[in-house]
Amino acid sequence: MTAQLVALCFDANDPLRLSRFWAGVLGWELADDPHDGITLLPSDDTGFRIRCLPTQEKKTGQNQMHFDLTSTSLEDQRQTVAKALELGARHIDIGQRPEEDHVVLADPEGNEFCVIGPDNKFLADCGFVGALACDGSQEVGYFWSEALGWPLVWDQDQETAIRSPHGGPKITWGGPPVAPKTGKNRLHFDLAPSPQGDQQAEVDRLVSLGATRIDVGPREVGRVMMADPDGNEFCVLASR
To answer: Is 211 within 8 Å of 227 (Cβ atoms)?
Structure first.
């Protein structure tokens, strides 16, 4: 049994504005959400949705994960950056060096993302959403490989990466040093049990792999809040 990655969720002070930004950058469609948030449906092989969920909490500190968007040429990279800026992004400095070929931006709510140059070999066979790049340990990379049933496609010097057998973006973890966690993450995964499984069995399996159940206050009915071995929150949804 493995879990299915259903969505990447953003906590958003203005879910509509944030969802329109990412829909414009990625070329995805907005869809009705049965809950309070707004859902974006992928128009490519990404394999999971984006959900923007309402919150009153303001962003503090750098996110634990961010998108790496790919480019086919320098002109393509410039066009992606220009489109993002037109939609409400801004340039930010997170310590990148001048010689690095990626452009670091923040969306309208300050969530970091990168537009990668065309010569990046690691993401060469990925689509426009090349990777979800995460701050995390080797252990957490192994955990998510087992949780999702996605094979490791990189495991060197405590850096790990996994990718769905069906393609789509990679999920990467940069290894030590891992920044200390200072509060609830702005982004988290929504998982669903496999078609043959149920929610409680999936929760028990994830606990056996190293996850923990957590209580973060009021939550939607049918969602179990958990944390991976690095303490990053995620949700397990009720069986569909």
So the answer is: yes
What is the number of other CB atoms lying within 10 angstroms of the CB of residue 180?
7
pTM of the model: 0.93
Pair 69, 123: CB distance under 8 Å = no
Query: Is residue 131 in some structural domain?
Result: yes
> pLDDT tens, 24-76?
999 999 997 766 789 999 999 999 999 999 999 999 889 999 999 999 999 99
Overall domain count for the chain? 1
CATH number for the domain spanning 130: value is 3.10.180.10
Query: Average pLDDT of the chain?
Result: 92
Sheet holding 65-69: strands in order across?
90-91, 103-106, 112-115, 65-69, 129-134, 170-173, 159-163, 152-156
- How many Cβ atoms sit within 10 Å of the Cβ of residue 3? 24
Q: What does the alpha-carbon distance between residue 226 and residue 223 come to, in Å, rounded to a whole number?
A: 10
178 in a domain, yes or no?
A: no
Q: Order of strands across the sheet with 187-192?
A: 29-31, 38-41, 49-54, 4-12, 187-192, 233-237, 223-227, 212-213
Query: Using omega within 30 degrees of 0 as the cis cutoff, is the peptide bond preceding 177 cis?
Result: yes
Closest-CA residue to 231 (of 155, 179, 160)? 179
Residue 193 lies inside a defined structural domain of this protein = no
Q: Which residues pair with 185 in a beta bridge?
A: none
214 within domain boundaries: no
Give the range of the structural domain holding residue 114, as residue numbers without chain letter.
4-173
